[in-house]
C-alpha cells in the first residue's frame, strides 16, 4: 500500500522505523516513487533485506514517517527528479518532500562533528546531531536567500539566469551575507547584478527551497535609479515588462512565480484606481 503524505505533521523522535511506519525514499537528488503515492511502509516487500538508516520527519495520523536513501539500482521504484516533483508534477506533498530532502542531507553530512571529528549521535530532545565530546549540537543547515520584484511605474524587472537552461525569466535573488539584514541583502544583490538602486523594500512571503537547504524570503521594492548593467556571470538578459506582456516565468508553485503574479495584480489595481 502507498500513501500520499497529505496529512503529514512535522515531528522528531530517535526511534528506528517499525514495520508499519512510513518511509520517504531518496536516491541522490531523486525521489523514489513507489506507486500511486510517495511513501511506503517499512515492511514493503521491495525493501526486504535492505539496511535502512532513517531519520524521523513526523507523523501521518498515528504512523511515524521517516526519510532514508536507497542505492540507485534499487528495483521497483520510479526515480523522479526533485525539481520536477516540486515544480511540475501534481499531487506531490511538497512540504513533506522538501523537508525530507533537507533533513536527509543534514543527516548524511553531519555523521561526524565538525569541531573534533568524532562520531555524532541523536540529540534526545531536538532535531539535532549531538557530539558527546564537544557537548555541542549540529542542527540542520538553513541558508537564507532574498528574492525581489522591482517595480518602476507600471513595469517590473525580469531577468534570465545565465546558468539556468530553462527559458524562464525570473527575479533577482541571492544569499544573505553575515552581518547583513534582509533588506540590505536585497539592495546589495540588486546593485551587484543589475546596477540599479532600490527603495521601499518590503516583505511579501517566504518559501522553503530544498536546493539544497535554502529559505527564500520574498520582497517587493521600488526602482530608485541607475541604468541596467548586468553581472554577466549571473544574468544573460533582463528588462522591464508590463503585466500580461512577459516572457515565460516560473510556475505558481515557486515563490518567484507567485511574487510575479502578485506584482501584476498590484500594478493592475493601481491602473484601475487611476482610471
Could you give a quick summary of the protein structure above?
Helices cover 20% and strands 35% of the residues.
Description:
- The protein has 275 residues and is of the alpha+beta class.
- It has two domains: 2-109, Nucleoside Triphosphate Pyrophosphohydrolase; 143-274, Nucleoside Triphosphate Pyrophosphohydrolase.
- Helix content is 20%, strand content 35%.
- It has helices at residues 82-87, 94-109, 182-194, 255-274, and strands at 2-3, 8-10, 22-27, 30-33, 39-41, 55-60, 63-69, 78-81, 121-122, 129-131, 136-138, 143-152, 155-161, 172-175, 197-209, 214-225, 235-241.
- A hairpin with a 2-residue loop joins strand 12 and strand 13.
- The model has no long low-confidence stretch (mean pLDDT 92).
Layout of SSEs?
Layout: E1 2-3, E2 8-10, E3 22-27, E4 30-33, E5 39-41, E6 55-60, E7 63-69, E8 78-81, H1 82-87, H2 94-109, E9 121-122, E10 129-131, E11 136-138, E12 143-152, E13 155-161, E14 172-175, H3 182-194, E15 197-209, E16 214-225, E17 235-241, H4 255-274
Parallel strand pairs: 3-7, 12-16
Antiparallel strand pairs: 1-5, 2-6, 3-4, 3-5, 4-8, 6-7, 9-10, 10-11, 12-13, 12-14, 13-17, 15-16
Label the overall shape.
Answer: globular
Reported for the largest beta sheet, the result is: 8 strands, mixed
- Helix/strand order, N-terminal first: EEEEEEEEHHEEEEEEHEEEH
- Which architecture of the largest domain does the CATH hierarchy give at level 2? Alpha-Beta Complex
Helix content: 10-25%
CATH class of the largest domain: Alpha Beta
Give the number of helices. 4
Number of strands: 17
Unreliable residue runs: none
Amino acid at each position: 500500500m502507498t500513501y500520499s503524505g497529505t496529512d503529514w505533521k512535522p515531528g522528531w523522535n530517535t526511534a528506528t522505523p517499525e514495520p508499519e511506519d512510513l518511509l520517504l525514499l531518496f536516491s541522490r537528488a531523486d525521489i523514489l516513487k513507489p506507486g500511486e503515492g510517495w511513501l511506503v511502509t517499512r515492511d514493503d516487500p521491495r525493501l526486504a533485506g535492505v539496511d535502512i538508516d532513517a531519520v524521523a520527519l513526523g507523523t501521518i495520523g498515528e504512523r511515524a514517517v521517516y526519510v532514508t536513501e536507497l542505492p540507485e539500482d534499487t528495483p521497483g521504484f520510479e526515480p523522479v527528479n526533485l525539481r520536477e516533483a516540486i515544480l511540475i508534477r501534481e499531487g506531490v506533498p511538497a512540504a513533506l518532500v522538501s523537508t525530507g530532502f533537507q533533513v536527509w542531507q543534514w543527516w548524511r553530512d553531519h555523521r561526524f562533528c565538525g569541531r573534533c571529528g568524532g562520531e555524532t549521535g541523536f540529540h534526545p530532545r531536538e532535531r539535532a546531531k549531538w557530539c558527546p565530546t564537544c557537548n555541542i549540537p549540529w542542527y540542520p543547515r538553513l541558508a537564507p536567500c532574498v528574492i525581489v520584484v522591482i517595480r518602476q511605474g507600471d513595469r517590473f524587472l525580469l531577468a534570465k539566469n545565465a546558468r539556468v537552461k530553462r527559458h524562464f525569466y525570473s527575479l533577482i535573488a541571492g544569499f544573505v551575507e553575515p552581518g547583513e539584514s534582509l533588506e540590505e541583502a536585497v539592495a546589495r544583490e540588486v546593485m551587484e547584478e543589475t546596477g540599479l538602486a532600490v527603495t521601499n523594500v518590503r516583505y511579501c512571503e517566504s518559501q522553503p527551497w530544498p536546493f539544497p537547504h535554502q529559505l527564500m524570503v520574498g520582497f517587493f521594492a521600488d526602482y530608485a535609479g541607475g541604468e541596467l548593467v548586468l553581472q554577466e556571470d549571473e544574468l544573460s538578459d533582463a528588462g522591464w515588462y508590463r503585466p500580461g506582456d512577459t516572457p515565460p516565468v516560473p510556475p505558481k508553485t515557486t515563490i518567484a512565480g507567485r511574487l510575479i503574479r502578485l506584482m501584476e495584480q498590484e500594478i493592475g489595481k493601481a491602473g484601475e484606481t487611476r482610471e
